[in-house]
Design a protein that fits this description.
Alpha-Beta Plaits; alpha/beta; Dihydrodipicolinate Reductase, domain 2; Rossmann fold; homodimer; 6-stranded parallel sheet; about 425 residues
């Protein structure tokens, strides 16, 4: 391993350009640490004329990223194009088939095609590394695959999308509504022009699927992940949560139970004093439960050019040092296929907000529905009076089956005195 | 790498026995993950007759741990004897000289003899791994050495001693004094019968020295670490901290600055809303500042058999997979020798608590001293009235040089109206 590790970078967007920049800026540090240099030998992007503030002299340019993956003189291809299919997938497959290792930040690709790519990589005795795909600069993939390798991981959960956490934090701090804070986040570059991928929970679900595969050494059916986003979280709900000693976060949650795996993404109310509740702004955090180590929480910037490039370069350093591990921490042909646990089987506490007419008998009607579904109410909150007008009624429950609360919600929704669709947020005891 | 990785365990105390137990309990999981088995082939402890609840059949027994390190049929020696010198050191040296890798949880040994052992290991082309030596089960050594290898680490700080954090948390939650809570911690097994190593900050300093060597790729002179413990933290100080929106934690702090390295361990007041402040009980946490990744915080159990064994087994899994790295993340002959930055050069805010006679002119005398040392006072807190009796006077300062506040303290201590030695706690803006 005396020669340099030769790297081809596919995609020169914010992150790709930053990887090239970081490898250049820290070249001597990295060589000292890895015992050899890491050199960018080739790059590929759509537009060669764009000024990225990069010195690309001496680096081969390819208009066609897959062509680069196949023919460039390199040991590793760093895929930073993005997208679950199309060019990104072709680049990774081509690189692996040509015997090159792949480093990627592409969670969508991994969530959907990860196991197939892992089979390909292991068949070709090469590596598929993806620290940058989950939780930005936080070395959680490494922690799961290596540091905690002696543990059975029972569960993990995390704040995996910085955009959602930024919005929820902003709503809490300012009391403003979702749409307002989203618009501000867009103006500041914390949210995309089309934010649906983030705010509808899809990005969190991709990352959760990747983490669950690794943590539980199992294949994950991405379609089986229960996904809800944060569009329906209102300023009212956030204020009520505070009053209840709780805080609203969009969590990705993975549990091994009943011989299967429960995978869900949705807004949660969690205790204000938990470490996870203190994760603010665009930060991410992941908490893992190992059977020997206990809880381990990792926290840091979940996105952005610097943190994401840091993670990709960490993977490159592993490769430069000759360190490798299986994609999912175990040979892919030994991965389990844990059955998804249906969402209806969740048991836990719930927060319900109803907009009701403030007149006699309403609470009696609602509590009758709860009783009929064997749901035990923990607290009622009703404030202000506005006879014959809509007032919020907040109910929290003791532990209840998800199927029961969903049935109860439907029945409640049909009551005359209930004026808007009920809002439900799950309360998680972390 | 088809055969098993053969492991000899030196020391069968709580952690040593747990390593043997964990490797046995998770044998198939570990083999699946590492692609080969990890087998305990030899053990050594002082008393062969003691019942440790372990099945040691088929495992060679050695009364002499160094003899085991030299002659046992093994690839790795796990040193869990402890102590900076004596048997532990002999075992590690002997193992390395015999070409075996060493896995150790021994921070005292590493803080003092780490670089010499690293030279020996690299000379013999073997590994010295020590995830278990710092922050128990938290994979912070791996994060620094590998995950964040593309970053210059500017600073790190952490809660590195679970005993101290348990005591400080207990004092805060119950309002009781240090001695009380220490006695309770001893009764519950959270503190040793002789607790000085923990509560005087020595253990934290050992861990800080190890982390700083790794983070900054430098040799550290352990004698140059400034160390203060928590014996003098009183219930009063904790109550005042709360009132000021602060919380008292024993932190280990390492900064690279002015071409040198600042290493200090002392009680700190930190903002109540910082992630570090939310680390309670026996938990540990380390926060790192990388120039690309930004802040990264890792949190988990800092001690105990399970977490420590988890870390040692993580190191064994690396060895089983054939993954290795230099002891300090870079070749030891390329480590820098950063000069220690003298404690007097610290700049920051300070909390001072004086016990003064409550009579006219006292505050004037004290503020005159502050003015003479060019110290800018941020706040005064004096409550209650007890004419001619001792009352606490709490002062917080704006950023000030440590040397100035120390001089001022001496002068203040000589004032007639000051009845007890002033208490100083540094306020850290994290």
């Amino acid at each position: 391993m005396s020669g340099p590790l030769r790297v081809a970078v596919a995609g020169l967007g914010t992150v790709g350009a930053e990887v090239v920049r970081l490898l250049h800026a820290e070249a001597s540090l990295i060589a000292q640490r890895c015992g050899r240099e890491i050199q960018v030998t080739a790059v590929s992007a759509r537009d060669r004329t764009r000024d990225r503030g990069l010195d690309l002299s001496g680096i081969a340019w390819f208009d066609d990223a897959a062509e680069m993956a196949r023919t460039a003189p390199c040991d590793v291809v760093v895929e930073l194009i993005g997208g679950a299919d199309g060019v990104a997938k072709a680049v990774c497959e081509t690189a692996i088939d040509a015997g090159r290792a792949v480093v990627t930040a592409n969670k969508a690709l991994l969530a959907i095609h990860g196991p197939a790519l892992a089979v390909r990589a292991e068949g070709g005795a090469t590596s598929l590394a993806y620290e940058a795909a989950v939780a930005g600069g936080i070395p959680v993939v490494k922690a799961l695959r290596e540091g905690l390798a002696g543990n059975r991981i029972r569960s993990l959960f995390g704040i995996l999308n910085g955009t959602c956490n930024y919005i929820l934090t902003g709503m809490r701090e300012t009391g403003r509504e979702f749409a307002d804070v989203l618009a501000e986040a867009q103006a500041l570059g914390y949210a995309e022009a089309d934010p649906s991928f983030d705010i509808d929970g899809v990005d969190t679900a991709h990352k959760l699927a990747v983490l669950a595969s690794l943590a539980f050494n199992t294949r994950v059916d991405f379609q089986a992940v229960h996904v809800e986003g944060i569009r329906h979280v209102s300023a009212q709900d956030i204020a009520y949560a505070e009053e209840l000693g709780l805080r609203i976060k969009l969590l990705g949650i993975a549990h091994q139970r009943d011989g299967g795996v429960e995978l869900r993404v949705h807004p949660c109310m969690i205790g204000k004093d938990t470490p996870m509740a203190s994760v603010g702004g665009a930060f991410n955090a992941v908490e893992l439960q190992g059977n020997h180590v206990g809880p381990v929480l990792l926290y840091g910037m979940g996105a952005g050019a610097g943190p994401t490039a840091s993670a990709a370069v960490g993977d490159l350093c592993d490769l430069a040092r000759g360190n490798a591990a299986n994609t999912y921490g175990a040979a892919v042909d030994r991965l389990a296929t844990l059955a998804p646990v249906a969402m209806g089987l969740r048991r836990g506490a719930y927060y319900l907000r109803l907009m009701v007419i403030d007149r006699p008998g309403v609470i009696a009607d609602i509590t009758a529905v709860m009783r009929d579904h064997q749901i035990s109410v923990e607290s009622f909150l009703q404030r202000g009076r506005a006879p014959d007008d809509a007032v919020p009624l907040v109910i929290t429950t003791h532990d209840t089956a998800e199927s029961a609360i969903m049935d109860a919600m439907q029945t409640i929704d049909r009551l005359d005195s209930v004026l808007e669709p009920p809002r439900l947020i799950r309360i998680e005891a972390l």
